[in-house]
Amino acid sequence: MNDAVDASSPFDPAEFAAALAQEHVADIVERLNAEPLERASAVLSAMPLERAAEVLDEPGLEAAADLVESQPSERAITLLKALSADQRADIFRHLGAPARERLLSQLDAETRTSLVQLLSYPENTAGSIMTTEFVSVPSSWTVGETLRHIRAVESTRETIYAIYVLNPKTKALIKAVSLRRLIVSEPHVSVLSIAPPRRPVTVSPFADREEVARLISKYDLLAVPVVSRGGHVLGIVTVDDIIDAIVEENTEDVQKFGGMEALDAPYMDIGFFEMIQKRAGWLCVLFVSEMLTASAMQHFQDELQKAIVLTLFIPLIMSSGGNSGSQATSLLIRAIALREMRLRDWWRVALRELPTGLTLGAILGLLGIMRIALWQKLGLFDYGEHWLLIACTVGAALVGIVTFGSLVGSMLPFILKRIGFDPASASAPFVATLVDVSGLVIYFSIALVFLRGTLL
Amino acid sequence: MNDAVDASSPFDPAEFAAALAQEHVADIVERLNAEPLERASAVLSAMPLERAAEVLDEPGLEAAADLVESQPSERAITLLKALSADQRADIFRHLGAPARERLLSQLDAETRTSLVQLLSYPENTAGSIMTTEFVSVPSSWTVGETLRHIRAVESTRETIYAIYVLNPKTKALIKAVSLRRLIVSEPHVSVLSIAPPRRPVTVSPFADREEVARLISKYDLLAVPVVSRGGHVLGIVTVDDIIDAIVEENTEDVQKFGGMEALDAPYMDIGFFEMIQKRAGWLCVLFVSEMLTASAMQHFQDELQKAIVLTLFIPLIMSSGGNSGSQATSLLIRAIALREMRLRDWWRVALRELPTGLTLGAILGLLGIMRIALWQKLGLFDYGEHWLLIACTVGAALVGIVTFGSLVGSMLPFILKRIGFDPASASAPFVATLVDVSGLVIYFSIALVFLRGTLL
After folding, report:
1. Considering only CB atoms, which chain B residues are within 8 Å of A325?
2. Contact flag B294-A313 (C-beta cutoff 8 Å)
3. How many residue pairs bridge chain A and chain B with CB atoms within 8 Å of each other?
4. Does the interface predicted TM-score (ipTM) exceed 0.90?
5. Which pLDDT belongs to residue B9?
6. B221 with B237: CB under 8 angstroms?
7. How far apart are CA B388 and CA B390, in angstroms?
8. Domain map of chain B by residue range?
């Protein structure tokens, strides 16, 4: 990544900054992310103020809070004032308490008030990711007046592609108009007359960012206004913020599905102990639950003693249950997240998973019976005189366990949602653990039926 | 979803269509998706042509191809002509061969040529999701001329927020200008003079849509131009198309991580046999691989016979390896997808996972030893006179297996990428299966060391 900087020559931040002058701000951010904090801070100091503000305004900049803190106090304040409101709030969220207090006290009253308001919204809500720099006009204005206003305020607005039309008296939101509509309309007509007939799509500041993403994606919006109960526009969430949020949510979902707490930073930036902490929690919970398998097997120890051949297939049978469960869970997590399915649809899913599980179990069961018969006939292993009964036990157990796995795996996201958890907490290891204990019980129960009087 | 239609009254498509007249087109699509094809088709026929085209233009409409096919031939052609090029191509991709031929032959030559070109790009490439309706102007124009042109062609363009400035002679792309820059600039200046200094971000028509998503997200673009080798703009991919693509890719990633082939339709819309097909493939592959566990156990059958107590902990130990592997895989799949990590960084990851795995294994190992000691001391189960040795065997095996699981799980995505597969094919069940066989071997080898001369 450092191809523009020769590692052997002494590091010159001014030179580095000058080399970046023509680059896209997103590329500068990528380069700064690859540098240690000290160097990145020196480069930022060497940049013209406006450019430095652009860099700090990028959500992709990893150590933004540390970088602001490392700048001289006066420059830090000037930079903070130049940032968009959402990015400023995000940087404050990551500042240490002393720096936060110090910088907050030096900001002008207006910026401070808006900042404190943004910081008051819980993480991952619309309020916490919105910005307050949007364009709004009274409904009494014409298209021409609106365009003139847009030209005047453009440089201080996050987006000018959506314009919010307010009631001149109450300041409540009436309509949203696109810049596209504005520029193709006659200048003298009322801005209200060119607005679409329906009422605008809005969200509450407390809406989850996933809900905001769903609305922006569904209605193909470039921005969605965040509206108070009284109908006032508090801010907007723009499409580029929401793409970042969607990508972040995905990473969290995959990590959670892998059976761990979601990391909130790139893999290489997480400290050793934090990594252990994020992973050990679920591993221990799963381990303790899985201890039930030892208890189950202790319960069947007499059977095990008599028919040691049964143990040979325990891993095979248990993993098949876990695998089918994992498939079903991944399907339902996404179906629920995409709103294809509501809580009340659980029985439809169960009715689908039952025949699906039976069929998949039958396929694996046949494979299992063939494997045992083949090894026996080819003389690769001797399962004893009752090998056919053993093969049937394994086959029947597979049907039972795969069906059970599919049912448990598909119902788990519904159950989690019902009791108020995120359906995406239903990880593959979680399902496998749930299925393992019951899988053992199913296997031994079937063995007792098939093999009583012969092996057992 | 059908709250506007009384189920007991006879279904009147015209009434249904009229009731939807004021709704947002995305909401109409949601309602039509919930109706059977016949009804949806009747409603579409009852809509004014322009509205029907708007509905068909939504990527969220599930049975778009069937709906077009069900319209009278002439209306179908008029509707197809009114659609945006990318959605038209998408509908053609889903049409049956006879309908495709029939409709293609009725289209005018220009539309047909553009359509055939779009259909020639492989699925999920930039070419296959781009649209050809963009705004381009020669670099010799002024801002005022450009704005007049935009006003004239606005209604036939997918987006007007990005304007592509072409070399008047070669028609090759020189710059991209935002509408935002245009409307705040003086009408008489050259459009080239207000363009940003850097060259525009572009993609090849054969770039993967994930790459397009990464660029749009990184550079906060509203659209990215798809450019031929000769530098000509073939089309554009807009941010709303890319959000749909990102959401779809996520769904595929979660389903693949769950150990199945990705579905290309909502859960409830997949037929029974297709569902079996998507799930049985991986289940069978995993099952056959997992058969190696039976072989491994057959290999250790003498040890099993002598120390049946060892079997009690097989599921516990194996699942711990699978769980730690699943965590590591989920971490690395995302880190690679987000380009936090390149192929050559594999050794850094291995160096991190080694101590992480050892620590996590030690934690679980301690828990395991405590569990055995506790049951023994409390008299819940008698592990025999050598219980302490057994506990140490289990503890040491856990350290070995969790470390091994973390290493295998973290390296698997790298290996898959190296041999040309999608790192996201590394599913949780896949890792668990890989770890299971070696886990058994590790367990029994440690047991041989610890218990030789006593139990074995």
Report:
1. none
2. yes
3. 360
4. no
5. 57
6. no
7. 5
8. 13-120, 135-238, 267-451
